[in-house]
Amino acid sequence: MIANPFKRPRKSRRSRPAARTAIRPCAPGTTDERVQAALEVSYARLLMTGAMLLFAFGAIGVRLVDISLLQAAREPQSAHAPRMQELRMDRADVIDRNGVLLATNLETASLFANPRKVMNPDETARQLATALPELREAEVARQLKSNRSFVWLRRNLTPRQQWRVIELGLPGIDFQSAESRVYPNGSLAAHILGFADIDNRGIAGIEKTFDATLRDSAEPLRLTVDMRVQHILRSALIRAKTEFSALGATGIVLDARNGEVVAMTSLPDFDPNDGGNAGDNQKFNRATLGVYELGSTFKIFTAAMALDYGIVTMRDGYDATKPIKISRFTIRDYHAKRRWLSVPEIFMYSSNIGSAKMAEAVGSEAQREFLGRIGMLRPASIELPEVGSPMMPSPWRPVNTMTISYGHGLAVSPLQLASGVAAMVNGGVFHKPTLIRRENAEAPQGKRIISAKTSREVRRLMRLVVENGTGRKASAEGYIVGGKTGTADKPKRGGYSRRALISSFVGAFPMTDPRYVVLVTLDEPRGNKSTHGYATGGWVAAPVVKRIIERAAPLLRVHPTDEQSPAVKKELYIAFKREGRQLASF
Amino acid sequence: MKGVSALVWIGLAGVASIAMFHIKFEVEQLQGALNGLNKEILEEQKAVHVLQAEWSYLTRPEHIEALADRLLPHLHPAAAHQVGNIEQFQTAIQKPRTIPAATTVRPASARELQ
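Predict the joint structure of the above. Result:
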């Protein structure tokens, strides 16, 4: 054991009398007391110093234990330690129905300079302009000569560009890493996705509608779109738009059973990676924001309405001998037969006169109510901010009832038409179109519009158009396509333009039990040699639908069927009268 | 006796403190390794994320189509008559037919693949 140095030494106490005796002869009395006092003082001082040292060492010891054992969590080593977790970006991904990545955030470096630290602005600018040719040397030199301490030179460099700048080793030039939104598929689904700005805020399309969700969630947003079908649709439309020198083109592939948008394209489109620089015409979504008078495709609704209300049957018909003159309009037929036409014939030959008479028999109020139920009188409910309001007549006069029966006087978006047609062919249930994939249990229930029997009759009529009528060019062998052509004159000041057309075809397949609705609309197509100069829906839009179905159906798992099989023929059998003669069409 | 027990206690205290420090440093080391691993995992996740974006870019349908047009000139989209079902195969097995002589398949030349 270590002896306590501060303990009062006993020996000295004992030796004190001896010392006293020894000292006494030369320094009696007073000297002894002074020595005694000095010893007491030094002893007290020693004790104090010892106590302070003991306290200091004790404190250091306690602190040592505290730091090394008890306060491990506060050590800087762990302060910045990454936790085991999933990678989280500022904005969640967007994926298609099969999980293909459509939009994602990537970390990119942005180049900035601190002009105060730049040694030779002109030389630095020259070198930077060599490494990044898109930079303008004079502009960079001007920025570098400014008196500020921070200037952006270029945002979002590619790794290669960053490397080229690093290689220059310029003082005062540095990078800041930030996330930027990337759309790997480019223009393919531009109008659906929209785009986000440089600060990662969604400013169009799905990016805008789900801006908050994408910021908060780590889970990717799954769309109903199938990129394979989207590509088939887009490339077919690009081809048609070029072939017929059209101003624009729109295409939609809709799941008839639940309203899911499988593909949707509007041309011209833009690259969302550079969305800010796209022109207004490119950014305009013709499928949802544009509203058009879509012509004879509306006869599907007129026929369905008249059949469902029991105003006509498939055996009835109307006299289409003469054009109808009502107020300042004359309603005439494009493919005029100038005779009595049965309901299937009115549909097959696309008779405006017959449809107008059918709608007149139904009445304005009933027509308005019917179109309202299939969402034609209010903006389409779709998860996009770019949605156009339909343009309808006010007041709704009998002449409007007649023109709307063949698709003039009521302007709707192509998406509204497609979802309305889906309700006519799928057994009579209307589903709101959607872009967001939901599990079956979450899918909203549809709303019944027409009876299953009427829906079956509409399917037969639509099949008839493709088999024998104006839509023969849409017949994709094996997929039992049915549909309706539509060719509308574009409205111009004070009337309609005869030269500018909106040509459409809306089809569904397979007609025995429709799975998908396909709509193609061309804006101002010009006929060419291959169409003998015609630019009608049957000539320019129907073949596009055929091409789309032929390529997309196998991917959509629609099995081809023998169109001549008795079961198919029975399902689509139609019997109609023609001026007293009984005809049958398969 | 008193001195021995004191020595034992002091010895035990010493051993305990050494053991404690040893465990502490071991834990610190493991913590460091864990942090390193977590950092690596995060880096890997970032790399995977970039690769996913790259994969999506390289497999965009128009790119695949352009490649197929160039490198697989004889491959066309499947036509309806090329799609069959399993029942058709069963009928074919039940009624064996003479199989036509195998058509010769010409391998793509190196020039086509370039």
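The radius of gyration of chain B is 36 Å.
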